[in-house]
Amino acid sequence: MPDPTNPTACLLIIGNEVLSGRTQDANIKFLATRLGEIGIPLREVRVIPDVAETIIATVNEVRARFDHVFTTGGIGPTHDDITSECVAAAFGVPWERHPEAWERMARYYAETRGGIAEFNPARQRMATMPRGAALIDNEISIAPGFTLGNVHVMAGVPRIMRSMFDSLAPRLAGGPPIVSVAVHAPGLPEGRIAEGLAAIQARYAALDLGSYPYYRSNGNGVAIVAKGSDPAAATAAIAEVTALMTRLGGTPIQGEPPT
Amino acid sequence: MPDPTNPTACLLIIGNEVLSGRTQDANIKFLATRLGEIGIPLREVRVIPDVAETIIATVNEVRARFDHVFTTGGIGPTHDDITSECVAAAFGVPWERHPEAWERMARYYAETRGGIAEFNPARQRMATMPRGAALIDNEISIAPGFTLGNVHVMAGVPRIMRSMFDSLAPRLAGGPPIVSVAVHAPGLPEGRIAEGLAAIQARYAALDLGSYPYYRSNGNGVAIVAKGSDPAAATAAIAEVTALMTRLGGTPIQGEPPT
Asked: In principle, which of A78, A146, B29, B76 could form an S-S bond with A133, CB 3.0–4.6 Å?
């Protein structure tokens, strides 16, 4: 288990397109990695459909259980983009014109896109937010995300989500970074190392020791990854795993196997 | 919304490696697609850590809410593989040697792998299952998954998971397949089509009409996808969307945009 003093995060991916298989998720890995780096480890992900009751109930459940909730998806201009109004409903606050978001978008459509596109009612919905929302900048396509309480509402398009997270991250108070130390052993099956590995895990209770078999065209093996907020402990645990692999006849290599 | 007569599915991805960003999920899209084809649409995904209380509570919550629960991950031989015993705890049944799984694995290690690997206690855990488990074959690496009640327990390694799902799928009683019809319009921004699209969605309440902007090196645009269990309705709705795109000055192309 990561250090229990670290704040925790939950990611809500809102969108039928992931649940239907149309779209390959590209946001979990990015956010999981970045949140680990700033010491707010991701402890749960949910993918839910564009259904108002589901979004409202889920937001309320997870914002009570985790220190931070990040949502992606459902903040565009179309009828299936209902995340923003659902977050307002979850918090029990009005959903209303956000003066600064409105001004940014009106200026963008008047000046930058004048003649090509207009700030029509569909786009005005993207400047309509729960009362009290603090904007999250969007360097890619103007329409901002927002933070309300401990809920951070971002776009689902990966390029836009990443821009929003870059703008949001400096405002988040994290804990110690979660570090990762790995070793792998080509040809060594996971089932041989299991018993010795459990004994090492038992001595390093503050770390997560993960065991991941890999299957590559140039050979199979097992990778062991120690994760936690204590770099010295992670290094020491992986040194013990390395010695275990050698005792079992393996030839361990530091780090993850090449992809 | 998909046809309410379709059985529903929830996917539980069990594993710290997805939550830490080490591993890119490769199972959601595969299972979402295959479950749609057999008419058991995926309605929720959760990614949860290798923590017993979390697994037990989540299994019990979602097996009551969905017709089918599919789990991936946590059925290997190492200390962090605790899915099987947690499913037993969730159902309140003993976790015990499964005679057929045990016999398959003992034979495999004695005959096929004789001299290279042994059926040691770590591997014996993979033949230990909740009482009443029905095996799911594993053509890749022998150790079976299992079904208990409406919970289907599979491996997390994508190649093994797919083999298990292929073996399981014929036993699942699905509903009408979820079909998908799409059209896209290069150069047409999502914000222009939003209003007309909402009106079409309102006339086809049994379909999900999704609007997905795309950003490609050779140009941007918007794709509209109709999903549901009535192919004629999906085709008719997309014909209306096509006419709407043309009225707005777009040049719609049937199908999804090239990747």
From this structure: A146
